Amino acid sequence: MTIILFYKIRNEEFLRLIGLSPVMEILIERNLLWVGHVHGMDNNRLTRRILYSQLSKGKINHGRPRLKFKGTAKKEHEVVRN
Hints:
Blueprint: H1 11-18, H2 23-39, H3 46-51, H4 69-81
């Protein structure tokens, strides 16, 4: 199949034509694989302790809360489960 560059085609359609997954789908899959990898580590590993820890002190940021990897991974897990 020949894809001509002059056609206006959406990314989703283009990726489907060449047989690739959308970028966000790949990122979600990789994040969940990494969280599963860290979850399987020993409890004393620094990476696992950091992922499952909470900050006790710090300055208060004003405005919209920043996206954190932990929250994003939870949302992605809920989407994949349902």
